[in-house]
UniProtKB/TrEMBL annotation:
It is a single-pass type I membrane protein. The keyword Manganese does not apply. One of its GO terms (molecular function) is protein serine/threonine kinase activity. It comes from the Eukaryota. GO terms for cellular component: membrane. Keywords: Glycoprotein, Kinase, Membrane, Receptor, Serine/threonine-protein kinase, Signal, Transferase, Transmembrane, Transmembrane helix. It comes from Medicago truncatula. This is Putative non-specific serine/threonine protein kinase. Its EC number is 2.7.11.1. It is found in: Membrane. Pfam families: LRR_1, LRR_6, LRR_8.
Length: 225
């Protein structure tokens, strides 16, 4: 058992190991909420499914960084993932979808994330993980957000961003289906933004002059006037 052999283990990276759920469960059976010292866990690029989350609950006490990208997760809710200490979460290249078509994907915004990566997660306008007004302040520490390579279409996403996430430094929105105009005040409100990628969308109109503070702006393959 990992925790018995290495009781003070703080960082564990087992990416690209062709791990299955059956391999993961016995490996971590001995971890418990009260004793685990693990703060960084990377199990990305394996063949894990949603059942793996059963043992992830063992790390809720101290886990700061969790990397789950490129697995076979199909998740309708993360509201049960009570990782209150988590700062970085990468779920890219998995499928996040609500149970019913009319529902929103339920995200756990009880955590003050600093970096959130949801690249290629089958997100659309109807299932983008929205915070409620009561917990929107929990997004105030978010500095990097990647929701590229999804199916977002409405420019409403820009209003959502500057209403809830005003301290972003890096924002990836490329390779969606975004249409319409970017709000003129988007750049003024998002005045901490240093990197913005809007490439490969269907945005129209002019690039707002308020983008003047952005040091890196990628906008190719849109319909700018």
């Amino acid at each position: 058992m990992v925790s018995k052999i290495l009781p003070n283990l703080r960082e564990l990276r087992v990416s690209e190991c062709d791990l299955l759920d059956i391999n993961i469960s016995p490996l971590f059976d001995s971890f418990c909420n009260t004793s685990s010292s693990l703060t960084i866990l990377d199990i990305s690029s394996n063949m894990l499914t949603s059942s793996t989350f059963k043992w992830l609950f063992n790390f809720t006490s101290n886990l700061k960084e969790l990397y789950l990208s490129n697995n076979k997760f199909v998740l309708s809710s993360l509201s049960l993932m009570n990782f209150h200490s988590l700062l970085i979460l990468d779920l890219s290249h998995n499928k996040l979808t609500p149970i019913e078509a009319q529902d929103n994907f339920i995200f756990n915004f009880t955590t003050k994330y600093q970096k959130l990566y949801l690249r290629n997660c089958s997100l659309s306008d109807r299932n983008i993980p929205l915070p409620s007004a009561s917990n929107s302040k929990l997004l105030s520490d978010l500095v990097s957000l990647d929701i590229s390579f999804n199916m977002l279409k409405s420019s409403v996403i820009f209003h959502w961003l500057f209403n809830f996430i005003t301290n972003l430094h890096r924002l990836h929105l490329s390779n969606n289906l975004l249409q319409g105009h970017i709000p003129d005040n988007f750049g003024n409100t998002m005045n901490s933004l240093e990197y913005l990628n809007l490439s490969n969308n269907e945005l129209q109109g002019e690039i707002p002059t308020s983008f003047g503070n952005i040091s890196t702006l990628q906008t190719y393959t849109n319909w700018w006037s």
